[in-house]
Amino acid sequence: MRNKISMIAALMLFxxxxxxxxxxxxxxxxxxxxKQFNVSPGVDYKNITITNSDLKQAxxxxxxxxxxxYTSLEVGIPEPIHKTATTTSAANANSFEGHRVxxxxxxxxxxxxTRMPLYLLSKNNQIVNGGIISQEKxxxxxxxxxFGILSNGNAEIDHYNFKTALTYxxxxxxxxxxxxxxxxxxxxxxTSSHENGYTNTNSYGMEYIITSDSTIRQPLxxxxxxxxxxxxxxxxxxxxxxxxxxxxxxLSLNGSKWLDPLQGMAIGDSVQIKVSIDSKWQNSxxxxxxxxxxxxxxxxxxxxxxxxxxxxxxTSRTAVAIDKTKKKVFFVTVDGRQPGYSNxxxxxxxxxxxxxxxxxxxxNLDGGGSTxxxxxxxxxxxxxxxxxxxxxRERYISSTLQAISTAPIGQPAFMRITxxxxxxxxxxxxxxxxxxxxxxxxxxxxxxxxxxxAFSVSNRIGTMNGNQFTANEAGQGTVTxxxxxxSRGLTVTVVDSIDKFSIxxxxxxxxxxxxxxxxxxxxxxxxKPVIYNQSQVKWSVSGDIGTITQDGKxxxxxxxxxxKIIAAAGxxxxxxxxxxxGSAPAxxxxxxxxxNSEYWAYKEIMYLSKNxxxxxxxxxxxxxxxxxxxxxxxxxxxxxxKLETSNVTNPGFSDVPTDHxxxxxxxxxxxxxxxGGKEGNRFDPEGNLTRAQMAAILQNAYHLQGMPEKDFADxxxxxxxxxxxxxxxxxEITTGYPDNTFRPGNTVTRAxxxxxxxxxxxx
Length: 763
Hints:
By secondary structure, this protein is mainly beta. The chain has ten helices and 45 strands.
């Protein structure tokens, strides 16, 4: 693949040193290429991180070769002109078979209230938006500069001279603008394509309605000449909204600069207006005005005061640049306002960086929250966001610049395969090999049948059955996938022992007859998972402690004993200590050897026991001080609320399979919206329940409302369980501790939970 760097290997590809300006001094900055690949035959993408001292910059670049016969650049102009969309959605809306948008960036500035572009936009010589030019050098666009593709196909960044000239009674006047809001001391030309055919101006001016004998094309084009006669006049102070004739135009004037020299214009007078642009830009494919210019003739050259607040701000930036040949175009974005990831650049730094990548000329585009770059990743025609916007999401913007590939669908040339589960593979274990994508020679994604991929294995490390690899012999080898002319190798490591093999839980203390499901974990020395099948684990016990099945389910014996549970996988073994407390006659309901009538929660425990909500242990103990697990909390709530467990929906917790002893109960409380999971899609049934978690669960279960007048000292309004804890206090389920603390992080004991549950049931 041409200059292709694997997207996986490129995560830590290399570090190079380059001169890069930060502020008023030059320093050495480390550059890390995170990702780099050909998006299409003429478009290359690169993502880098530049680190200097305590600053980081995340930079994305699309390099577009206009010399490639399948590559072009287009301007994305919304329809209607005031419509906005995200950069990626605008790109995808313009992408279709034979015309694939493979990259895009946000375009020039726009008014966030009216959503109209602020500066000149043209396409195929048609004037889509006339735009304005600021007068102050602290503004981004104080000079008329545009990026565009000329009629000869070359890219250009240069000044332009856009004129709308009025000729009246042998005098020529250069008007202020075209089809935009009229400001003070301005003369604006309005054509029928403006805002639903009306001028929408205020009454502080004069408007001359001019009708032409010939049809005026809409929108206007550079080089058009409009002529006609004044047929009506809207006088100063008239609040009527002026209708623009379809076969004419309106001349709108404000201020003595225009009203004085043209005060004699009367109905019947002839006028002529010529719309022109420099010969260089005449008949261009499109123009997009913006600013400031950042680079000219390969050097930093800014058309904006570099010491102004806007220029000095360190923020997200977007630019378009060209090289000397005018055949290479760079789309560049820098993320900002995200310390630790990307601080952003000021305009001087941005210009210096653009020079460093080979820009001969560069033009700043809209930045800040509008900065966005979209690219086509391998395996899909969808354009997706490549950078990380400072708003945390893509902003709706006006125009875009888009890189287009017109390459046809070809033959398989490239592909990628991966292990479905990453990691070393234990001898005897199996893992699926997944084909991620197949591309043609133009990097277009191809539809393919995974069943038709031919796999082979080197070094006798294993065998393939369809797409499933089975490890036979320790060592390292290559699994190669082939689809047509496309092939790709994948390095696979097979081991016969597990560096870090362990059993969960790490120890057991059970009563006679109790059961417990155990599981194992295997890691290599780097802490990464080793792939092995659970059926490979051989379980055994040492001592007269009970029995264990080959799927890891342990049943405690009937007598008091100590011993070990042992698991073996390959050449690796692990063991945990086990203590079994001998059985005793089952106590009568509500009678426990360790809870007498003087115990603080005696009434509550007895109530729950007699109502079959909670029970003790075969030894006759209640163990009120034992910490409550999340699984036991689920059991108590299911019993108290009488939740149905026979027809539940699988919540999909990774550590609660359908054969888990408490599966139906945990599913029932999850389905009822009472208890959720943890990170990694886990329920953590053996995890201890904290007081904060308990509050949230009880609030969900019993729909508690209300907040106390006084907060607990250690539960601030910003704390995640603030309202849940407050609702318990308001409903007198808890009073907290004597020092006015709730201690939300403390674990809940069986006695505490019994007391809380009793109070809710009997409130």
